[in-house]
Amino acid sequence: MAQYFSVHPVNPQARLLKQAVQLLTQSQVLAVPTDSSYALVCHVDDKSAVDQLRRIRGVDDKHHLTLLCRDLSELANFARVDNKQFRLIKQATPGPYTFILEATKEVPRRLSHPQRKTIGLRVPEHTVLQELLSLHGAPLIAATLILPGDEGPLNDPETIRERLEHQIGAVIDAGACALEPTTVVDMSTDTPEVIRLGRGDPKRLGL
After folding, report:
1. DSSP one-letter string for 14-50
2. In the β-sheet with 39-43, what is the strand arrangement from edge to edge?
3. Cβ contacts of residue 150 below 8 Å, gap of 6+?
4. Which DSSP string corresponds to 122-169?
5. SS3 119
6. How high is the pLDDT of residue 148?
7. What is the pLDDT of residue 35?
8. Fold of 3-205
9. Which H/E stretch holds residue 1?
10. Pair 97, 183: CB distance under 8 Å
11. Measured between alpha carbons, how far is 119 from 29 in angstroms, rounded to an integer?
């Protein structure tokens, strides 16, 4: 059964988040709040956990997963970003935007798109998730918590636990999130393109 960590949305209890981090090291998938909607996350280097995340979401290896980074310096380790791209990303970071970028060799091949060699990256603006990333000490791989057959992401932590209690390690409850996924911007070509309009306003990027 999934564990349930109820944390303060502004001043989350470190002891609870440390327990959540411990679960990540044990091949567990967690449901966590973000600045867009709840998401499923797991350890980047854990193949079994990533496979479980894909099974829960009902997606194959052609679906872009997202690396959640603490800041832009981390993002640069996992994506090839030129000066123009960096300036554009900086305008909307942190925030509810996912950027599709060319993956570096730091990204395990099984996590990037099999043909395009791209990966989704973002820097979330959510206190609890930022604290979790800080305690974990590295990026996490993530996917929006939309279950097969559902039209939108799950938003109620209790419902998430009920529906996934035997498939994930824990739910981190920091209250309801926005019901919109991130805005996705493909920056893997010369011209940035919004491929999914979500919570992030493209005007912030001049798009």
Report:
1. HHHHHHHHHHHTTT--EEE--SSS-EEEEETT-HHHH
2. 3-6, 170-173, 30-32, 39-43, 140-144, 66-68, 118-122, 97-102, 183-186, 193-196
3. none
4. E----HHHHHHHHHHTS-EEEEE---TT-SS----HHHHHHHHTTT-S
5. strand
6. 93
7. 92
8. DHBP synthase (3.90.870)
9. none
10. yes
11. 19
pLDDT at residue 176 tops 90:
no
Beta bridge partners of 147: none
Q: Which amino acid does the sequence have at 42?
A: C
Asked if residues 28 and 168 have their Cβ atoms less than 8 Å apart, the reply is yes
Residue 206 reports pLDDT greater than 90: no
Question: Omega of the bond prior to 12 within 30 degrees of 0, cis?
Answer: no
Q: Flag whether pLDDT at 178 surpasses 90.
A: no
Nearest to 39 by CA among 187, 147, 167, 165: 147
Backbone angles phi, psi at 32, to 5 degrees: -130, 155
Strands 39-43 and 140-144: antiparallel
* Cα–Cα nearest to 182, from 124, 66, 98: 98
Q: Rounded to whole angstroms, how far apart are CA atoms 68 and 143?
A: 10
Residue 44 CB neighbour total at 10 angstroms: 22
Backbone angles phi, psi at 103, to 5 degrees: -75, 145
Encoding tokens for residue 138?
């590295």
